[in-house]
Give the backbone structure.
Amino acid sequence: MLSWPAVALPPVTKEIKFPELSLFNSYCKVIEPVPSREPFTMYVCGITPYDATHLGHAATYLSFDLVHRYLTAMGREVHFIENVTDIDDPLFERANRDGVAWSQLGQDQVDLFRADMASMRILPPKRFESVTEAMPRIIMLVERLIESGMTYQLEGSIYLDGSRFGDYNDLPFSNTEAIEIFATRGGDPMREGKHHPLDPLLWRESSNGEPSWQSSFGSGRPGWHIECNAIAWRTPQELDSDTSNEWSIDLQGGGSDLLFPHHYMTALQGRMISGQIFAHHFVHAGMISYQGAKMSKSLGNLVFVSRLTSTGIDPMAIRIALMLGHYRTDREWSDEILGRGESLLARLRTVLGRQAVPNYRSVIDEIITELANDLDTPAALHRLDKYLESALTGDEEMNPGELSRFLDSVLGLAV
Ligand code: ZN
């Protein structure tokens, strides 16, 4: 599907030296440099389009936007892919409740999402692909697993025989906890006949009225995790120009609530299909809470980006407010945080609006150093704010243009 409009990236001065970007890898639990292969392939799990973009989504996509921007600014090519889960139970439930076609609801919500991403100046993915678009490739992967004997059938459904051919020895939780979490995040551990409670569903028979697709193994629709294997991997067209037999991508990202089971199962399936690791780096963004609880539909405490901007709040202030917390930290959204974002933005506008400002070479280096260290945006913004404070009374030495282009390019702050 169409991505949102490209965001112009002003060039940064060649003299700026970017250290390697290091990010916390949730798999080995250390901060380490991201892979140096070209292009850098980054896959971020996208939305299920049944409601507008809330600040939890915005914080996640902002985190990976910073990765995208940093690598691009240092001269690397980023192949960024994002999916849209346009076939999912919550989408069908919402469409039924509201009496609209699921496909129409999905399309409307994706339009809103694109507008929110564009207003937040998130760089668009090179490939923005929905499950319905990727269906032939999803079916191909399930066929491949069936042919390798790594699956079993349960009525009209097909499961991965994970305990027999993969393993569940590296679960991020105890077996019991994993089963409990699996049940709350789309899994069906208690279904009778499963070989192991955690075995992920690859294909299911569609219930009455739900969309279904024909395949050599029956008509139905895909399970959740296999869609991300299919979309993250290169398309046949992309593979045409590459004979490396390299399946692994460089980074898989998403909110920390996707770590298990979604990313775990995608990685397991990826290993079973290709014999290679699915992603070198697994990166997870923290959750945003509001009024003391994680933002969620069921609690009704969602703060929508579009609602904030429709009241005149500058999307750049929202960007700054989210960056005042570290991307991996679960954090609280509040009017106070937004106020801090607005006030930093106002100071920035005042300084960048001058004819000449004090020398900013060292603050640029400081900001880069903080970002290279696992995207430490709170420290980077602190450095920037210190400079702005001193700039209000300091010597007028340089034109602010280079600083303005740097902040736009690397932090996405167009002021
Ligand atoms: Zn995913």
Remarks:
- The first helix runs from residue 55 to 73.
